[in-house]
Amino acid sequence: MYSPKKEQFHTFQETEHGVFGLFDSPAEIINAAQKTKDKGYTNFDCFTPYPVHGLDDAMGLPRSGLPWVTFFMGIFGCVAGFGMQYLTHKYDWPLNISGKSFNAWFAYIPITFEFTVFMAGVSTAVAMFILTKLPKTGRKVLHPDITTDKFALWIPSNSANYSESGVTDFIKGLGSKHVETVK
User: Fold this and answer.
1) Where do the domains of the chain lie?
2) N or C: where does the chain have the smaller number of CB atoms within 10 Å of the terminal CB?
């Protein structure tokens, strides 16, 4: 059975110093991420203009823990929505309509469903903002082409095996057209 792990809720530790390289296609950035992981660099990141399928696997990132938050808050919303209606009809405002019992559960389904979706959606959005520490004000833009039409590989200075010249040569060897050191 699959169980949640602590590393699924990892947080990225940002640094302002490091080296980045620009690539032209998703295939190039996936190849670069795979080779960076194989080389032993840690805490590196990839910036893309749109989601790239397979990039998380190439980077060696664990599966996100966010679906667990959605699942458990959806269950909470389902139980709370049903319970709120049942307790209201049974104890707070007991009206007998057309001889139906106070536990006419099929009448509770629309509200229960809506409350389930509401709690799952809102809690997922809140958890995403907390885990990603958004919004981040004052964040430095590395290059104007990143996330417009270029793909970037960022290796920060706190990465394992980091040496400025070694990382620069490594990224150039991956086929990057533009390599820049940020200090």
Assistant:
1) 6-62+140-182, 65-132
2) N
Whether 160 and 40 have beta carbons less than 8 Å apart is answered as: yes
Place of tokens 């319970």: 83
The pLDDT score that the predictor gives to residue 96 is: 82
State the sign of the Cα–Cα–Cα–Cα dihedral 143, 147, 152, 154.
positive
Look at the alpha carbons of 156, 160, 164, 169 in this order and tell me if their dihedral is positive or negative.
negative
Q: Per-residue pLDDT for 104 more than 90?
A: no
Contact, 152 vs 134, CB < 8 A? Answer: no
Contact 73, 125 (CB under 8 A): no
- What integer pLDDT is reported at residue 74 of this predicted model? 97
C-alpha 80/C-alpha 129 separation (Å) is: 24
Closest CA to 4 of 150, 161, 127, 154: 127
Query: Which strands sit side by side in the sheet containing 45-47, from one edge to the other?
Result: 45-47, 151-156, 18-23, 178-182
